[in-house]
Design goal:
The chain is α/β, with parallel strands linked by helices. It has a domain at about 50-140: Nucleotidyltransferase, domain 5. Helices cover about 35% and strands about 20% of the residues. It contains 3 helices and 7 strands, in the order αββββαβαββ. It has helices spanning about 20-40, 85-100, 115-130; strands at about 50-55, 65-70, 80, 85, 105-110, 135, 140. The strands form 2 sheets. Strands 4-3-2-5-6 form a 5-stranded mixed beta sheet. It has a two-stranded parallel sheet with strand order 1-7. Helix 2 runs parallel beside helix 3. It starts with 19 loop residues before the first helix and ends with a strand.
Length: about 140
């Protein structure tokens, strides 16, 4: 009887990659974005008829700067973020912002039907607290 000799198999590296950690990372990022997105969009849901501007090139905001939004509604109410405030409360909050080492950029959202006096009142408070990084939110003409 003839004997057949087999060669011993040489050890080969396993070509499979363990993707469990990548799947965990993907799900973690998905959950973070699912939680963060509604919080970011919340201030955009306040119905305000913004003034219209002509079409022009927009400057990109600096992502390193924190921002806060002040909204003036047509009936004269003032909101900081989504919290309604009277002018005295707004002044206290602006004083806190001014005391920070890097004060935030203030996004001023004025309804087109808001009066000039409401605008001047908010601007006076910003001026009193030396908050000079102000952005006026508008909508582009169509």
């Amino acid at each position: 009887m003839a004997r057949t000799f087999r060669r011993p198999r040489t050890a080969q590296p396993i070509a499979e990659m363990n993707v469990t950690n990548l799947v965990d990372l993907g799900f973690t990022l998905l959950i973070i974005f699912m939680i963060a997105t509604p919080l970011i969009q919340q201030e955009q849901t306040i119905p305000v008829s913004l003034p219209v501007e002509s079409v022009s090139a927009q400057q990109k905001p600096d992502p390193a700067l924190r921002s806060e939004s002040i909204t003036v509604l047509p009936d004269g109410r003032v909101l900081l973020g989504d919290r309604p405030m009277i002018i005295r409360q707004l002044a206290v909050q602006l004083a806190r912002f001014a005391a920070e080492p890097k004060p935030p950029v203030i996004h001023l959202r004025l309804d087109a039907k808001a009066t000039a006096q409401q605008f001047v009142t908010v601007m006076d408070e910003l001026k009193k607290h030396n908050l000079s990084k102000i952005s006026f939110d508008t909508q582009v003409a169509r």
